[in-house]
């Protein structure tokens, strides 16, 4: 209930400036359809934003309706196609998700959010060459406010391809852009482990714990770092935390396999 109240408040805020733009603030009976006739670009953007708000509370059907409405107004609405791709992705309809990612990029080949989302989708499918290509293009957009996120995923992708030099470059740049972006430090720690640069791995992990939570992934990486140094006491401490807090996680199973080797 609280989520829906907050959603209603966000929707109201989205509609208010559109009423002002269209000169409709005093007319309470005007619909968004009327706004579409007066200011189609504003109406398109409103529907996309509404769809994104519904996605935040995982109301996929309402989100889908808004994204399709935006496309009715503008069939080159890359943001709407991207939103639909996310809707289908959350429903595990992967073919449909990919179709809409491609539609988004056909509508606007320079739409960075679609490149990132599509790249992450491909990364999740272990299609690393395609994923890295999309993500690398996304990192070139220096005006995008979330560029560090694109660099993080690009770095992760290159790490999966064992291209450690390029992964390190991308992740270091992500951290320079946003020094508090913890995920990049954790990924960079794994790059340094793979390169056997243990002091850098340890110091970078410390940076991660300044900003990031003790997730199962972070605890497993910490275990690997301490094991690489031969620090049995610290390794056991992290292992105990992993078992206590995440006993049914993939990371705990991975640690047990490590211990049996």
UniProtKB/TrEMBL annotation:
Keywords: Repeat, Signal, TPR repeat. SUPFAM superfamilies: TPR-like. PROSITE patterns: PROKAR_LIPOPROTEIN, TPR, TPR_REGION. It comes from the Bacteria. Residues 1-22 form the signal peptide. TPR repeats lie at residues 44-77, 78-111. Gene3D superfamilies: Tetratricopeptide repeat domain. The keyword Glycoprotein does not apply. PANTHER family: LIPOPOLYSACCHARIDE ASSEMBLY PROTEIN B, TPR REPEAT-CONTAINING PROTEIN PA4667. This is Type IV pilus biogenesis/stability protein PilW. It comes from Umboniibacter marinipuniceus.
């Amino acid at each position: 209930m609280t989520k829906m109240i907050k959603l209603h408040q966000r929707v109201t805020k989205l509609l208010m400036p559109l009423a002002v733009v269209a000169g409709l603030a005093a007319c309470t009976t005007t619909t968004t359809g009327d706004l579409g006739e007066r200011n189609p670009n504003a109406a398109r953007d409103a529907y996309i934003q509404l769809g994104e708000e519904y996605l935040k509370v995982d109301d996929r059907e309402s989100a889908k309706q808004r994204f399709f409405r935006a496309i009715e107004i503008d069939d080159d609405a890359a943001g709407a196609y991207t939103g639909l791709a996310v809707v289908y992705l959350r429903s595990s309809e992967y073919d449909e998700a990919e179709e809409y990612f491609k539609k988004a990029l056909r509508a606007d080949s320079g739409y960075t959010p679609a490149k990132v989302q599509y790249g992450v989708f491909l990364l999740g499918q272990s299609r690393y060459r395609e994923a890295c290509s999309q993500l690398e293009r996304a990192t070139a957009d220096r005006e995008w406010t979330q560029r560090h996120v694109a660099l993080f995923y690009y770095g992760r992708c290159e790490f999966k391809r064992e291209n450690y030099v390029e992964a390190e470059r991308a992740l270091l740049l992500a951290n320079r852009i946003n020094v508090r972006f913890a995920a990049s430090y954790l990924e960079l720690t794994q790059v340094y482990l793979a390169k056997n640069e243990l002091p850098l791995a340890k110091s970078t992990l410390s940076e991660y714990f300044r900003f990031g939570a003790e997730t199962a992934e972070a605890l497993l990486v910490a275990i690997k770092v301490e094991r690489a140094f031969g620090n049995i006491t610290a390794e056991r401490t992290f292992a105990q935390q992993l078992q206590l807090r995440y006993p049914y996680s993939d990371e705990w199973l991975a640690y047990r396999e490590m211990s049996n080797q």
